[in-house]
Amino acid sequence: MPEKEVIFNSKIKNSGPVHFKELYRFCYDWLREEANLVVVEEKYVEKLGVDSKNIDIKWSGFRKITDYFKHEIKVEWSVIGLKDIEIEKNGKKSKINTGSIEIKVKGVLIRDYEAKFEQNASKKFMRAIYEKWVIPARVEEYESKLISECEEFLDQVKAYLALEGQKAGIVQI
Fold first, then answer.
1. Can you tell me the distance from the alpha carbon of 4 to that of 113, in angstroms, rounded to the nearest whole number?
2. Separation CA 152–CA 34 (nearest Å)
């Protein structure tokens, strides 16, 4: 069985105006294009309320690093009270969403993802020696790259949300 280790775990929260569909597309595209991950949407659930909706989303993205290592980034969205509002800026009316969005990110380093060393006890022992004495610097390097990638993703999302907030420096109607 592959060994999975959570290397990074963080979240961001934002309340206020946002184009939700554009944020969703931005995040998905960033993970696919910038992080070169294969992204799978494991869950998308909308719960409709009287005038708003709540959305739960789970993504899992992975990338093979070597024949032994794989990066996995898990993203969980919790959107509460998402509703459409109309805004006026510079005399023009447009529609935008508002609500509370929380995005959790976990970075997981997967070792021996094909379970080549799991066939018997002696191979498991060899794997422990291999990781502890032969490749510890490589393990640290891959952990560091995964942390950097997760932090960069969250920084990009924060910047996107800040820009959306500035663009929407608005008067609600």
1. 9
2. 10
Higher per-residue confidence, 118 vs 31? 31
pLDDT at 4 (0 to 100) = 92
Under DSSP, is residue 144 helix (H, G, I), strand (E, B) or coil? Answer: helix
Sign of the torsion formed by the C-alpha atoms of 160, 104, 138 and 4: negative
Identify each DSSP E strand in the chain by its residue range.
3-18, 38-48, 53-64, 69-89, 92-111, 171-172
Query: Taking CA 64 as the corner, what is the angle to CA 59 and CA 134, rounded to the nearest 5 degrees?
Result: 130
Instruction: Return the DSSP state at 37.
Output: -
Domain that holds residue 156: 3-172
Average pLDDT (50-62) is 97
Helical packing angle, 136-167 and 20-29, nearest 10°: 160
Number of domains in the chain: 1
Contact predicate 103/75, CB 8 Å = yes
Nearest to 65 by CA among 114, 30, 123: 114
The first and second tokens of residue 59, run together, are: 């993504």
Q: Is residue 159 within 8 Å of residue 12, measured between CB atoms?
A: no
Q: What is the pTM of this model?
A: 0.89
Residue carrying structure tokens 């990110």? 105
Q: Report whether 93 contacts 87 (CB < 8 A).
A: yes
